Amino acid sequence: MELPPLEKDELAELLAEFGLGKPGPGSGPIPAWGNRRYRVETPKGPHELRFKSIEDEFDLRRELDLLAFFEKHNFQSPRVVCDLRGRQFLERGGYCLVLYQLAAGNYLDEENFSLDQINSAGQLIGQFHMVGRGYKKTIENRYGFDRIFETYAAVRRRMPHYFKKIVRTLDEETEYLGNYLETKLPKGIIHGTIHKYCMLFGADEITSIGDLDAACRGKYVYDLATAVNSLCFSDGTFHLDRFEALMAGYESVRTLSLAEWDSFPNELRFAALRFAVIRLHEFFASDREEAQRINDDFRRYFDRLRVLRREKEGGMEGLLMAMATGYDYRKYQRVKTDGEEGEGGAGGEGGAGGTGSDGTP
Fold first, then answer.
1. Do residue 28 and residue 164 come from a single domain?
2. Could you tell me if residue 333 is left (phi over 0), alpha (psi between -120 and 50 degrees) or otherwise beta?
3. Using CB atoms within 10 A as the burial measure, which of 83, 158, 301, 357 is most buried?
4. What is the pTM of this model?
5. Biggest alpha carbon distance in the chain?
6. Could you give the C-alpha distances from 51 to 60, 77, 107, 282, 307, in angstroms and in order?
7. Do 158 and 282 belong together in one domain?
8. How many structural domains compose the chain?
9. Whole-angstrom Cα distance, residue 188 to residue 127?
10. Nearest partner of 208 among 351, 78, 36, judged by Cα
C-alpha cells in the first residue's frame, strides 16, 4: 500500500500529540524513503517520525524493548518519545507511527565518511556488542543462512529471464556459502543490518546507531561484515585505510578471535548476499515510492558481492591480506613477571579458545 505524504499541518498535529511544537525549517521526508521517514526539527532538538506496517507490530515492540535497554545503559541510540497519553506508538491507517529523539548529526553517503568517523563507528559497534551481553531476552535471527536461502528460492522464481547472469552468480554463492559458513563463533546481540541510514555522524565521530528492527542474537563478526560493506566500500572499491580504521576502533573495545578473522571473508560475502537477496524480495513486493531506492540498494550490494567473489577488481586482495594478518598473538601473551614464563593466551575474551562449545563467549 502506497503511503500518502504528510502535509505540513498534519505533521504539526501529530507532533502536538507528543507534546512538541510546530516542525521547524528543514523538516520533511528523508530522501529515498518515500513517505515512511520524516526528519523533524523541533524546539527540543532533532526527531524522526517513522511509519511502520502494523503487520510488523510484534517486531516493533521488540525493537522498542531493546532500545529501552540500551537507553538504560546510556548507549548512543535514538530515544523513543511517548505521546501525551504515554503510548510508545500510534496507529494510523494500517501503520504504526513512532517518534524518535535523535542525537545531533547527519546521515552521510559512502563517499563522505572520514577515517575518524569510521574509527568512531568501530568503537560504537564494539560497545553495542559488549552492552548487549546484558540483554537476556531471546531474539530470533531472521536473517541466518537458512532463511536467506528460502527467501532467495522464492525470489528466484519471479526473476525475469534477462536476469540470468545475476541468477547464476546468486546460485553459485548460495551453494558455496551453504558449505563454508562457520556457525561456532562468538555470538550475542547484534545490530543485524548496519547501513548508512542507521548511523548519525558529527564532524569527527558517530553520534548514534539506530534502526534496531533487525537486531537479534547472531555472530559478532557478521555484524562487522555488514559494517565493512557499508562503511569501507565507495566508488566501486573497498578501501583498506577505512577497513583498518574500522577494525582498530572495534578492537579497542573487543578483540576478534583467530576463528573470527578466518571466517571474515565468507561473512563479508554472506552479508552482501543477504542484502542483495532481501532487496530483490522487497523490490518485487514494493510500492512505487520505494522501488528506485530498493533497486539502487540491490545493485550496490550485488556489486560488492562481485568484488568479494573476485570477479572484478575492487580492493579485495588488500582486505584479504589484512584479514590474514589481523590476528595479533601478542595481544594474548601474559606479561612475564619475576622470571615467570609467558603463556599463550587463549583464555581472554577474544582468544581463539575463549568461547563455549556453541561459540558463545
1. no
2. beta
3. 301
4. 0.86
5. 76
6. 11, 19, 19, 16, 35
7. yes
8. 2
9. 12
10. 78
Q: At what angle do helices 240-251 and 220-231 cross, to 10 degrees?
A: 140
* Cα distances (Å, whole numbers) of residue 245 to 215, 271, 332: 24, 20, 21
When computed from its CA atoms, the radius of gyration of the chain, rounded to whole angstroms, is: 21
- Residue 189 and residue 127 in one domain: yes
In this structure, of 135-139, 142-146, 153-157, 329-333, the range with the lowest mean pLDDT score is 329-333
* Separation CA 20–CA 223 (nearest Å): 35
In a domain, 10, yes or no: no
Q: Residue 76 is placed in which grid cell?
A: 548512543
Q: Give the pLDDT confidence of 165-197 residue by residue, as tens digits.
A: 999 999 999 999 999 999 899 999 999 999 988
Beta bridge mates, 190: 216
Cell of 145: 543462512
Q: At what angle do helices 316-324 and 258-285 cross, to 10 degrees?
A: 140
Amino acid at 145: F
